[in-house]
């Protein structure tokens, strides 16, 4: 989200709605992106730990938290996977190993692109 950088440079997120919601303030979007970068990896790690332990309540809690954060950046595929994970956990089900692989494969590029958002504006 550098000045003049087209928002189409992103493939896993779409920060345009967030940018509109904050009145076009790219600095605010960058600040929210930095918050995501600080908060999301530990949440994702706790989600993986809960899944490996079969703790449905923790899976539900962590997937719900991360779902909201990813939805803010319009990370549609990741948000949908987290929604499915949360719904399954509400029924006492843990993600299968291949589901965890798919979550990781969706999370990594989202994290990378949100990192670009975070670096697009200097910190205040």
UniProtKB/TrEMBL annotation:
<dbReference type="Pfam" id="PF01627">
    <property type="entry name" value="Hpt"/>
</dbReference>
<feature type="domain" description="HPt">
    <location>
        <begin position="25"/>
        <end position="118"/>
    </location>
</feature>
<protein>
    <submittedName>
        <fullName>Phosphotransferase</fullName>
    </submittedName>
</protein>
<dbReference type="GO" id="GO:0000160">
    <property type="term" value="P:phosphorelay signal transduction system"/>
</dbReference>
<dbReference type="InterPro" id="IPR036641">
    <property type="entry name" value="HPT_dom_sf"/>
</dbReference>
<dbReference type="InterPro" id="IPR008207">
    <property type="entry name" value="Sig_transdc_His_kin_Hpt_dom"/>
</dbReference>
<keyword id="KW-0597">Phosphoprotein</keyword>
<keyword id="KW-0808">Transferase</keyword>
<keyword id="KW-0902">Two-component regulatory system</keyword>
<feature type="modified residue" description="Phosphohistidine">
    <location>
        <position position="64"/>
    </location>
</feature>
<dbReference type="GO" id="GO:0004672">
    <property type="term" value="F:protein kinase activity"/>
</dbReference>
């Amino acid at each position: 989200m550098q000045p003049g950088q087209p928002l189409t440079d992103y493939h896993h997120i779409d920060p345009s709605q967030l940018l509109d919601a904050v009145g076009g303030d790219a600095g605010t979007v960058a600040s929210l992106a930095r918050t995501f970068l600080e908060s999301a990896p530990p949440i994702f790690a706790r989600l993986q730990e809960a899944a490996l332990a079969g703790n449905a309540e923790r899976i539900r809690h962590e997937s719900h938290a991360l779902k909201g954060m990813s939805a803010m950046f319009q990370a549609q595929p990741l948000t949908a996977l987290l929604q499915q994970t949360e719904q399954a956990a509400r029924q006492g089900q843990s993600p299968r190993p291949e589901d965890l692989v798919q979550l990781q494969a969706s999370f990594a590029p989202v994290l990378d692109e949100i990192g670009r958002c975070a670096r697009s504006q200097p910190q205040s």
